[in-house]
Design a protein that fits this description.
alpha/beta; TIM Barrel; 8-stranded parallel barrel; 4-stranded antiparallel β-sheet; globular
Length: 318
């Protein structure tokens, strides 16, 4: 059974989502690749893999490794570039999955590159065959700013504000800004992004980590270090969501370690309106649909007419 609109529907940044469960960036490809594996129509939305100004080959193999607490990856933001995405993927997104929201994950390595990608995608959405392909953009400000010595955009208040302002100037579609859990003051960074024009915030990106193959005495990933995701990230993401909820009023999209309805509910209680699933779906493609189904059952069992009424209702003892 797929969730009823009355129980799980939620409005975020002016967009109606049929339920709050969204496939996280980096795990959903551009949608078409998963269409025969995941029941995408049962979900609230999906975030595409990264879109950069130019094609990126990405990091050397192996790119993914598992460990007891989840997964570590270093894909290196591999993608075909914005021109190829416009040509090869937007037409499919425009004609598929009615009712499912589609958000493009945007990356850049200089302040102006984010807005350039957004503008290129936005202009294509008015072209024949691509209208309605995308509903919003997610700016991944965890990328390194190569013009500022590699400091990630989210950790530089000036660069963060400028990235968001420039992107805001070239589109009327909602902007989500994705923040890293390693920021020294994630609530302050959230406030800066909102003041610059963000409509919503995505919390959180992966944590940096290193997994060693002790039998080979070398890093498990070809790149060496990578981003940690999966079960171990759940309390980190929930805490970030709770902190940011108290600092800003825009909707939050909670991501990290979600594999069940109760994990999703933790994010919602902490303040998230949307909840992302990534690593768990890679292990079992049925997980996202099962979470939707189980949340519907939980609402019915507990007399909850609208799950969104519980957003941010966590109480913490003083």
């Amino acid at each position: 059974m797929i969730a009823t609109r009355s129980a799980l529907a939620v409005r975020v940044a002016g967009l109606e989502f049929q339920n709050p469960i969204v496939l996280a960036a980096g795990t959903a490809a551009y949608g078409r690749e998963l269409a025969d594996v995941v029941n995408l129509a049962a979900l609230g939305g999906l975030v595409t893999k990264a879109v950069s100004p130019l094609p990126r080959a990405g990091a050397p193999a192996p790119r993914v490794a598992e460990f007891d607490g989840g997964m570590i990856n270093a894909v290196g933001l591999a993608n075909p570039g914005v021109d190829a995405v416009r040509r090869e993927h937007l037409p499919w997104l425009a004609t598929s999955l009615p009712g499912v929201r589609k958000i493009a994950n945007v990356v850049g390595f200089a302040v102006e590159e984010f807005a350039g990608v957004v503008e290129a995608l936005d202009s294509a959405l008015g072209a024949e065959g691509a209208g309605g392909a995308l509903d919003a953009y997610e700016l991944n400000v965890s990328c390194p700013n190569v013009k500022a010595g590699g400091l990630e955009f989210g950790a530089d208040p000036g660069a963060l504000a400028e990235v968001v302002r420039r992107a805001r100037s070239v589109t009327t579609r909602p902007l989500f800004v994705k923040l890293s859990p390693t920021l020294p003051d994630i609530a302050r960074s959230a406030s800066i992004a909102v003041d610059a024009g963000a409509d919503a915030l995505t919390l959180v990106n992966t944590l940096p980590g290193l997994v060693i193959d002790v039998s080979q005495r070398r890093a498990a990933l070809g790149f060496g270090t990578g981003g940690v995701s999966g079960t171990a990230l759940l309390p980190v993401g929930v805490l970030a969501t709770w902190k940011v909820r108290r600092a800003v009023k825009v909707p939050l999209f909670g991501i990290g370690g979600v594999g069940s309805w109760s994990d999703a509910l933790q994010y919602i209680l902490a303040g998230a309106s949307l909840v992302g699933i990534g690593t768990a779906m890679l292990r079992d493609p049925r997980v996202p649909e099962r979470v939707v189904r189980d949340l519907t059952r939980w609402c019915r069992t507990n007399g909850v007419d609208r799950l969104s009424d519980l957003t941010g209702s966590l109480t913490v003892s003083s």
